[in-house]
Amino acid sequence: MNPIDRNTGVAHVPQWRRRTFFGLGLLLTAAISLPAVSRAHGDDGDRDGQRGTHWVGTWTASPQAPEPPIILATPGQFDNQTIRQIVHISVGGSRMRVRLSNEYGRTPLVVGSAHIARQLAGNGATIMPGTDRALTFGGRTGVTIPAGAPVLSDPVELDAPALSNLAISIHLPNPTTVGTFHSLGVQTTYVSSQGDFTAASTLPTASTTTSWFFLSGVTVATRRPPAAIVALGDSITDGYASTVDANRRWPNLLAARLQATPRFRQVAVMDQGISGNRTLHDLIGPNALARFDRDVLVAPGAKWVVLLEGINNIGIPGTFGLSQEVVSADDIIFGYRQLIDRAHEQGLKIYGGTLTPFENTTIPGYYTPAGEVKRQAVNQWIRTSGAFDAVIDFDKAIRDPAHPTRMLPLYDSGDHLHPNDAGYYAMANFIDLGLFDSD
Prior knowledge:
By secondary structure, the protein is an alpha+beta fold. It is built from eight helices and 26 strands. The chain has helices spanning 235-238, 250-259, 288-297, 311-320, 329-345, 369-384, 394-398, 421-430, and strands at residues 28-29, 43-45, 53-60, 77-78, 81-88, 93-101, 109-111, 113-118, 133-134, 143-145, 150-152, 156-160, 165-172, 176-177, 181-182, 189-194, 205-209, 212-213, 215-222, 227-233, 267-275, 302-308, 349-353, 390-392, 399-400, 403-407. Helix 5 (329-345) runs parallel beside helix 6. The longest helix has 17 residues, at 329-345. The chain is globular.
């Protein structure tokens, strides 16, 4: 295992593994993967015996392959163990489904059993009494997921209020190499000693990590027309440097604002951030142009997209020595136009988030004066082109008025690229909720 510097978040990777990985200003972030149902309405019809039921994504984590420069903390393999993963949903419901993923696996993934429950508040790997439900897949208690595929559970009855935490437990009975995961969970995942503990009220924990494994979505049933926001981005959307287990990523905080306003309580938020992600090139997760269909266009109930991705296009080539992947402001804008056109083709509104300050970031090679010129040019285009349906000026929300090329110290996590909890609050509070009024 390669050591990770606790101060910088940089994983020191041998040269043959593409150099060092840093806590990247848009370090490990998201790509989701939700059920391939009707994007426009999320309507499941009467196929599950509930005519008129719609499905909406309430939580997501975009799947990734664990490839350089990503270094798994612990573990890289499971063997007859249970993984209990905690997820924070946006809208609540009484009927839900879970989406598991083997999308980057090279061999079939055997899941012996899977359960869902509500987490007992403040008790880590302990579930709330009376809430445990076994998941089935086409009526089967276990499932073998083909290489490259996701799988969707059967609907299960479970009352879960908005903004609550669910505990999803899966048992992997065979030696299983991690092929699909989401690197930056900012949430504690609990790994058991050997055995199937999916139904246990408290998991006998052998180790913990802050990634999610083989889990990419939760959907809830609704009788109302579904309405969801997809936050597509990098580590700033994924919540890098926010407090672990506190759910202070800006999409979480936006969901809390929506729930506090009665007319928006039906609006779900799906976080499809992947730390280190870029719009035009692969390295950490598939690029945004490649994952847009999977993570946005077929996301159940999606109506709006908030796009905040591009700073890694500017900074990553310098950090990793990828001179062949240096891009211009026009290249970044080209990628945005593609995403805008594809969103509009499917009837979604797409809002452009301005790129936030990064001057003097502590990530080696990431910031340059030339890169700042590109950021300013991209932001000018976002603000003035009229190409997006609306603009969310995240740059203005967290920059230092006295030094606009830098983040306000109050909002700085310390690396001068990623916000802290206060910065994520400022971003969420800057968003006009009126952008999400249903037509």
